[in-house]
Design brief:
Helix content: under 10%
Number of strands: 4
Strand content: over 45%
Structural class: mainly beta
Low-confidence stretches: none
Distance between the termini: 11 Å
Largest sheet: 4 strands, mixed
Bound molecules: zinc ion
Radius of gyration: 10 Å
Length: 42
């Protein structure tokens, strides 16, 4: 999973999820089609 200062969808199969990770509110991209698209906001 990539960690970036900002995340965005890379294809139409990417899903944005938000939640608390490691104690901070973060945005994540989950992609079923292409696991390389998985990202996490830094
Ligand atoms: Zn994707």
């Amino acid at each position: 999973m990539k960690v970036r200062p900002s995340v965005k969808k890379m294809c139409s199969d990417c899903n944005i999820t938000t939640g608390k990770f490691q104690g901070k509110k973060r945005v994540r991209i989950r992609c079923k089609k292409n696991p390389k698209h998985n990202q996490r906001q830094g």
